[in-house]
Amino acid sequence: MAARNDQLAAKNHALAEALTRAGKELGKAKAQLMQLAQPPLTFATMIGIEGSTIDDRGVRHSSAEVIAGSRRMIVPVAANVNVARLACGETVTLNDSMVLVAQRGVEQIGMLRYIREVLDDGRLIVADASGNAVAVRRSSRIASMTVSARDRVIVDTSSHIALEVLPGEDVTDLVLEETPDITFEDIGGLEEQIGRIRDAVQLPFLHRSLFERYGLKAPKGVLLYGPPGNGKTLIAKAVAHALAQGKAAGSGVFLSVKGPELLNKYVGESERLIRMIFRRARERAASGRPVIVFIDEMDSLLRTRGTGVSSDVETTIVPQFLAELDGVDTLDNVMVIGASNRIDMIDPAVLRPGRLDVKIRVERPDRHQAEQILHHYLTDDLPTQPGVDVDDLIETMAGDIYARDTHRHIADLGDDRGRWTTLYLADIVSGAMLKNIVDRAKTKAVKATIESERNMAMTPELLEQAIDDEYRETTDAILDVDPEQWSRINNLAGGHAVRLRSAAEGRR
Ligand code: ADP
Questions:
Q1: Is the CA virtual torsion 143, 149, 151, 152 positive or negative?
Q2: Contact 416, 496 (CB under 8 A)
Q3: At 358, phi and psi to the nearest 5?
Q4: Which residues are CB-contacts of 503 (< 8 A; sequence separation ≥ 6)?
């Protein structure tokens, strides 16, 4: 009897389990069906509560003013929604009978606008990049915030509500202003380039009436191009310094910006920044001081139209820049110098006659130029060993850096046909690298001096160690570059490399 009971109980248990399982499955299927049958919800922006009444049974009935797309509506609010927390500017959803059913928080995207004026009742007059003004109301979130003209706000343009205030970004954050004291004499191995830029810029500037007499026009700008770290910025600074010489007005002004930093995620922002830079240049020049506007990495900002990378760059930034550049004509003291290592990417309109039509290539130093650069950093006043002068040190250094053998082998670049080009340190050396090597050696000398408590000389061994350190670091770092881009920027392997392998791998 007991055994039979046990059997029945087990059977019961199994049955009950099966039932629960079936129930769960049914529930799931039901939920899925519900989901399939659920109509879509419409997104809308909350403007305000229109009315709120409580009926005999104590149930609250509220209605709200919302904007969905371009439709402005008054809709009932579902009972489960907390009316007290429905704030102006908030995103809400409406069901298919246009009942407000849920809150979704405040949207964080929208158009960027500049505040022109704050009205007494709190509304804002805002303007877009082309200066079109419109009045907007503030979302509840920023209703009591102190805002002022020139602040930026994110505006939901369909509901005309300012959703969020952004920390003010001024052109001063992006433009570096300095009065450089670098002279052409501080630059090594670039006599030819310096000669050209002096003829193009300095000559017409200092001898304006002579140029007029012969009917010659000064260029508006110059483009310096070539691989990074070889003196483009130095030359531009020296120009700013040189232009001020012989002028009663004092020092020259160097305004510099980096192309990629001007590229802003907000529509119209880059154009505004470009306008502001030129305005600043004009202000500075008004006092008679020559001003150089230096735009580094110019290719990123003034990319060839039609490359499709960014519609912003193509359609509005290039024309805005050209308009400002064309306006430079009347501003005697302003000159634009662009720098780029991808001249092929710059919109040809920028480089046409009458614009940045003087193009000067600044290449990597060859061995002779490297020696001239090294002379600026390894100077006669440094402690050396008896019988070894600085010239000897420089010659030894250059010999080592420009050696095309295994101990200066950096990597190999491969093209798409499987051909490999061997890269040596000499192929990628730059003025900046030369200075860096000397600095490394000087640091070693300083450390040794501290340890031994007597002035350590700059020896060939120290310099060789410094070159070794630089070589090792470069060899490691190069493995992270994108071979295609890198070979184009550096004009190596015909600019067509697709692969890169380490020196060690290449030797295997
Ligand atoms: P680029 O603008 O071409 O990228 P920079 O002019 O900024 O390069 O050079 C970076 C640094 O390298 C300079 O500040 C300077 O210390 C050093 N340097 C580069 N080229 C030279 C040069 N021809 N003569 C002296 N120093 C140089």
A1: positive
A2: yes
A3: -100, 115
A4: 406, 409, 410, 411, 412, 475
Listed in sequence order, the residues at least 6 apart from 109 whose beta carbon sits closer than 8 Å to its beta carbon are 154
* Ligand 1 mutation target, pool 234, 371, 394, most atoms within 8 A of CB: 234
Query: What pLDDT digit, counting tens, does each position of 350-373 carry?
Result: 998 888 989 999 999 999 999 999
Six token digits for residue 315? 């359609």
- CA-to-CA distance for 334 and 221, rounded, in angstroms? 9
Ligand 1 centre and the CA of 101: distance in Å? 63
The tokens for 506 are 């290449």
Angle between helices 367-377 and 431-452 in degrees, nearest 10: 40
As given in the structure block, the two tokens for residue 42 are 């419409």
The answer for residues whose C-beta is within 8 angstroms of residue 153's C-beta and 6 or more apart is 112, 113, 114, 115, 124, 126, 136, 142, 147, 162, 163, 164, 165, 166
Give the residue, out of 296, 378, 435, 491, with the most ligand 1 atoms within 8 A of its beta carbon, to mutate for a pocket test: 435
Residue-wise pLDDT for 389-441, tens only, equals 999 999 999 999 999 999 999 999 998 888 899 999 999 999 999 999 999 99
What's 353's DSSP letter? T
Containing 391, the helix (H) or strand (E) segment is helix 390-401
